[in-house]
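Feature request, filed as a ticket because there's no other form

It would be nice if the structure record came with a short human-readable summary line next to the tokens. Right now we just get the raw output. Example of a typical job, pasted below so the devs can see what we mean:
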Amino acid sequence: MKAYVTTLRAISAAFGRQIWQQLILLAIPSIVVPLILFIWLVQLSGWAWIGLIVFILAFLIAAGFLVLFHAVLSLLTPHQDQEQKEAVHAFMDKIGFYQGITGTPRFIIAFRLMRSLINPEKEKYLQNIIDAKNLRSELQQLVALFQ
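Raw output as currently delivered:
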């Protein structure tokens, strides 16, 4: 059972890393462009300082959430060797492909995977995917790598 839970943690962490990378790519332009705009507006009017302060506070709150997300992701990620990492990414790509057909966003997949990891008796999301998509043999091979 420990290998199965470790495998679920590795899959969830891989999805989480993809979401993390997408969030960072979204956050950089979302910070730089308004910051340049506010710096320009501050030169035109002193009242723009209020908007700049609100923007900085919103940035700090968002940065706090990103740091918290990264910390949870770091705690969730199990130690893996190169073979395990490659196998997890291959399995994750298969799940992502099947879920891409249905149009489920990756952050919902990651959330449901983490929820199935925390409470496997109540949430059987990964098990349902595996049963529906005939991925049982791939999952068993992946679990065997973590034993």
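Something like this underneath would help us a lot:
Residues 2-145 form one domain.
The chain has a mean pLDDT of 80.
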